[in-house]
Amino acid sequence: MNLRPHITRLLLPLITCILFACSGGPEEKPVSDSLSSPARLLDQGISQYNVDNYAAAIDQFEKALLQYRSIDNQAGIANSCLNLAKTHMATNHNQLAAEYLLRANTVIQQASLTELNEHLSLLNSSLAINSGIYDQALQELDEVLTSKDSTIRLAALKNRTNIAFLRNDNDRLQWLEKYKELQNQHPGKLSHAARILRFQAEASDERAESITLLARSLAISQQLANRTAIAATLAQWASLDKRENRFKDAEDKYLRALFIRHQLGDVKSSLSILQQLHPVYLATDDEKAILTNNWINRLSANDFSGWQELYADFDIYPQPD
């Protein structure tokens, strides 16, 4: 019996499979995974940022940056750096924010990522405001005040109005009105509504009106669980109480704001609140005036030892054993 034809019929399918396997090589990882994984990290970071969980946001953005660098995705690298800069600015870590913005700028220019220019200019303006360099901030805002993107334009008007109020410019109310008009066209942007109310409270000469405006702003920020805005509103309201010698009310609001800033790890804002709180204790002959002054001196000298215990020195709530 001639077995050769039978052997040939058995071998051909096997040879075909072997040849197919060799020519195809090992199964490739889907390209989409390499792109979607860091994109998911960016989305997760943005979600954490939106609830003021800045430590978690930074962790996600740093992981996204590392993964985007591993595949040399320039757009992803630039976006990660921009988000890291914005998050570090939220807690006044401005030097680190400046370094990320510089890296983002380099990538954006080298890779011609023109679609990110407005985001870069907006963040540069915010950093300049934080650093008190208002002329530079204004130059950056020239690029975005006429943006076609309403989200960008709203943020730009917020920064421009902030500069006008910080410098007490004669046209500050005109900028506030422009900001308000655009926000009215986008009523869903509640964080901007809360900020506008704070500007209006600052501009008002009527105590009752200022309190009403600040109460409305605080309610919106609490509804949004926007911790930075809550702290800013409490501190602004406390300053109003202090000017009118309502020292117990001022102390209460300053301490509530200090707790939030301390929880966020915002050293600069915590120091600012302590500096505003100190005169309250001096006016009331409170023994905490010495304690407050000690913390002011330590933080001013960049001595952060014992930072985690700072608020415990002021906390009026029972402390766990």
Please give a quick description of this structure.
By secondary structure, this protein is an all-alpha fold. It has helices spanning 4-24, 31-50, 54-70, 74-90, 94-110, 117-130, 134-141, 150-166, 172-185, 190-203, 207-224, 227-243, 247-264, 267-283, 288-300.
What can you see in these coordinates?
With 321 residues, this protein is an all-alpha fold. It has 15 helices and no strands. The radius of gyration is 27 Å and the shape is globular. The protein starts with a helix and ends in a 21-residue tail after the last helix.
Fold topology:
Layout: H1 4-24, H2 31-50, H3 54-70, H4 74-90, H5 94-110, H6 117-130, H7 134-141, H8 150-166, H9 172-185, H10 190-203, H11 207-224, H12 227-243, H13 247-264, H14 267-283, H15 288-300
How would you describe this structure in keywords?
single chain, 321 residues, mainly alpha, globular, disordered N terminus
The mean pLDDT is 90
Our count of helices gives: 15
Give the terminus-to-terminus CA distance: 93 Å
Rg, nearest Å: 27 Å
Number of strands: 0
Helix and strand pattern: HHHHHHHHHHHHHHH
Share in β-strands: under 5%
What assembly state would you assign to the polypeptide chains in this entry? Answer: single chain
- The best one-word shape is globular
Helix % is over 70%
Low-confidence runs: 1-26
